[in-house]
């Protein structure tokens, strides 16, 4: 029988958090660049490629969070029937989902992201480009975002707006930026947040 204790739960949460933050950094440093290479086979404009990948990251987190919210409701309803123990129903549900990731239909989220991107009128993209070419990146981001929702508190990304003031505590400037400009032209990668605090900086282009 698995016993529960606040200390054990805290250690597990901290360990999972560290792994997920590291995974976020790896996707930025490796898998994002691979996705850029794939898109550059179809699109010569680097800004367009970077905008596509940023939107893919934002949409992946949105889809995964929505799926997580629906699953958590179902799990809480089921556990509430015979829930006993020192932890709250909320904590019990998060723990259950963390241990049963197969509850998540990740393929459905991936298709939702691709569909949303294809219908995005603000996303500059040649009509002959299929966003399925970056399906692997989207899948990894959806999986990561879903797992981040099982943490206490959950991790999320910041949603940037073109033209906003550059925030050096939240973003790095890309090497091709105008370092004298105080405004964000577009976002390359989102910042990772925890309770409103930046955990990992994102990347922007200022001009």
From TrEMBL:
It is found in: Cytoplasm; Mitochondrion matrix; Mitochondrion outer membrane. It comes from Platysteira castanea. One of its GO terms (biological process) is mitophagy by internal vacuole formation. Its main location: cytoplasm. The gene is Spata18. GO terms for cellular component: mitochondrial matrix; mitochondrial outer membrane. Residues 17-206 form the Mitochondria-eating protein C-terminal domain. This is Mitochondria-eating protein. The keyword Glycoprotein does not apply. One of its GO terms (molecular function) is lipid binding. InterPro entries: MIEAP, MIEAP_C. Keywords: Coiled coil, Cytoplasm, Lipid-binding, Membrane, Mitochondrion, Mitochondrion outer membrane. Belongs to the MIEAP family.
């Amino acid at each position: 029988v698995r016993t529960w204790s606040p200390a054990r739960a805290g250690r597990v949460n901290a360990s999972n958090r560290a792994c997920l933050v590291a995974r976020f950094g790896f996707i930025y440093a490796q898998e994002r660049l691979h996705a850029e290479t794939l898109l550059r086979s179809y699109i010569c404009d680097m800004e367009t490629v970077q905008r596509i990948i940023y939107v893919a990251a934002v949409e992946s987190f949105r889809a995964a969070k929505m799926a997580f919210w629906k699953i958590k409701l179902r799990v809480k309803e089921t556990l509430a029937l015979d829930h006993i123990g020192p932890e709250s129903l909320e904590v019990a549900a998060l723990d259950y989902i963390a241990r049963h990731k197969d509850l998540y239909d990740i393929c459905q989220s991936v298709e939702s992201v691709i569909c949303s991107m294809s219908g995005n009128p603000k996303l500059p993209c040649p009509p002959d480009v299929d966003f399925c070419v970056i399906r692997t990146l989207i899948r990894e981001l959806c999986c990561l975002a879903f797992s981040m929702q099982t943490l206490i508190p959950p991790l999320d990304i910041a949603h940037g707006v073109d033209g906003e003031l550059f925030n050096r505590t939240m973003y790095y400037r890309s090497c091709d930026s105008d370092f004298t400009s105080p405004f964000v032209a577009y976002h390359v990668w989102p910042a990772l947040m925890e309770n409103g605090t930046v955990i990992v900086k994102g990347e922007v282009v200022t001009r």
